[in-house]
Amino acid sequence: xxxxxxxxxxxxxxxxxxxxxxxxxxxxxxxxxxxxxxxxxxxxxxxxxxxxxxxxxxxxxxxxxxxxxxxxxxxxxxxxxxxxxxxxxxxxxxxxxxxxxxxxxxxxxxxxxxxxxxxxxxxxxxxxxxx
Length: 131
What we know:
This protein has 7 helices and 2 strands. It is mainly alpha-helical and 131 residues long.
């Protein structure tokens, strides 16, 4: 975990944190407050990635190792939320409908804009597809 905090101190995020701590809901701008903030941020992030199946965390020696799903997400730039859906949804008995549903509900598609009146066309097409 210490390596993660050390890494963050070399980022633009850390510079912003020290220059504008109020933006990040940080009360004080001293080393202890910033260190505690970063420690909590890293702990929450590791917990979330572990919960979503992206990493394994060994608390004894504080090591973080990626899972196969974590490697997959890193290689294809997938969100941890997408990885969590894949971990939960991919089973030996999943059919083509299930695979299409998993892919269509991926977090990466959430930000794609829909053109004007295209939602009407999409709604009409959903009634034609037997999924």
